[in-house]
Design goal:
With 610 residues, the chain is α/β, with parallel strands linked by helices. Helix content is 35%, strand content 21%. It is built from 19 helices and 22 strands. Strands 11, 12, 13, 14, 15, 16, 17, 20, 21 and 22 form a ten-stranded mixed beta sheet that branches. Strands 1, 2, 3, 4, 5, 6, 7 and 8 form an eight-stranded mixed beta sheet that branches. The protein has a two-stranded antiparallel sheet with strand order 9-10. Helix 2 (28-42) runs antiparallel to helix 3 (44-55) and helix 5 runs parallel beside helix 6 (119-131). The protein is elongated. The two termini are 24 Å apart.
Length: 610
Amino acid sequence: MLLFPPPSGRWRLIDRLRRAAKSFPLAVKAKRRLDALVARRRGPDARYAAWVARQYPGPQERARIAADVAAMTNPPLISVLMPVYETDPCWLGAAIGSIRAQLYPHWELCLSDDASTRADVRAMLMAAAAEDGRIKLHLRAERGHISANTNSALALASGEFVALVDADDELPPDALYWIAREIVAHPDVDMIFSDEDKINAKGRHFDPHFKGDWNPSLMLGQNAFSHLGVFRRSLVAAAGGLREGFEGSQDHDLALRCAELTEPARIRHVPRVLYHWRALPQSTASSPAVKPYAWQAGRRAILEHLARQGIAAEVEPGVGGFYRVRYARPADWPLVSIIVPSRLGEVARRSLDALFAGSTYPHFEVILAVGTGDAARPEAAAYLAALGGQRRLRVVTYERAPFNYSWVNNHAARQARGDYLCFLNDDVTPITPDWLEEMVLRARLPGVGAVGAMLYYPDDTIQHAGVILGIGGVADHAHRHVRRGSPGYFGRAALDQDLSCVTAAAMVMPRRLFEALGGFDEALPCAFNDVDLCLRIRRAGQRILWTPQAELYHHESLTFGPHDSPERTGQFLKDVAEMRRRWATALDADPFYNPNLSRDIRWQWGVDQR
């Protein structure tokens, strides 16, 4: 069966009109409408191609950019570093041409040829340098590979900032403008990166990577900085340039080393596709397996980065060809107080049994918070009596109505003796026995304020892979209903990462930090109290991590009912209004979720979840 049937006469006419419209500036809007029609006809890739076409600056946008550049009092000079080796002149010409076509004029192109044997390559380079005084050229006498060759290009640079561009890739015409605009707006910036996509030999755009802001934990699983990567030249010099021996992952290594010499606030992300990565059979854009040495170089870069921070770890293959960090385990584990509010229903009793039987963490206590009425029910009383010999269990009863999730957790936390608190719903069941070890290892890292886990529905689809702010007005879980084992959007369902928020259905954090922040806000008794707490953690300068290495099942909302159930709808709506009042600015601009991605609950991370 044909997914896309042959075009009818009407569609052939539309296509001809669409292509003809390129020649007439006044027809830009009509062309975009035609592109959208054709995109809907041809499928997802064509829809993205139509989106790319809409981003291409038309006459009015070009005039606006020119006026903005003219108004810059001190426009930065950007040195584009382009290492060349035996590059097909077809793609080399396109790469150089994309730099010369930049709407931002304050650039220089630093070309270094790594002793190419092709006469046509060197001829093209020398012709380009002769034609444009902004193009500098170095011809290496002997082969040095990508790191040495890029350093040769770096030696030509005189700009305050350098941008790394491969010799077979392309930049859209407004790429350097948006970089310069970011530099002017944030003069202390040290590193800038953008979104990117791939472009094939026929010029078709696909596989857009819409990134979040700087993400230190995600950088340990993949190069989340990548293209277009721009660095302050003095910072690259301080880091020692690109390191030989890291070929294939030299830019990942450079980003990690430069990040160590600056601050996260001085690393900026431009949420625009400013780089087109050429996907050719011999490039890693087509498949990382093309250059297996690149994976090993990336592993070394991550290991050395961790070692420089005094963090003992091993790095091994992860899902989808990414990296997985195995943190070294301490000789003595800290005491963790696991706080479980419960009504002691059937699912809760099974989950508690699984918690004790299926957790290998050597040093924890469970604080079971139960209302006096629930504790008095015959089946609950019998269960508690049966647990009487469990030395790791303490039962805390209370009398309070109506139910207030924040108050109950705060009340139980005051009884805790552990250095770390683990908030755990009573309908959560461990899958990986070392789930708590994995969470505590990350909670002990410097600057980490809370750690969340991977939670699945009983049907082995994702219930929680972190929380995205702004979805549904306040927040919702990422990758909901994606199948277990799927890497998700660019590995985001399979890699450790910094996030703005995680659910308190399974969350570990230092007890001292919890107490310093005043615990959960009891003015939020029903919903989003964990979102509020996580936002306060980040406001205090601490990081929120999520890890897929701690896996648990979650029978969501079985104990106290869903937040938007009929009997709780009124309070839920009050909580929504209160969250919007407090945090509207943060909720509408999650730094770890790209603004080009949908905030429709069904389409998080570009995955249709209907």
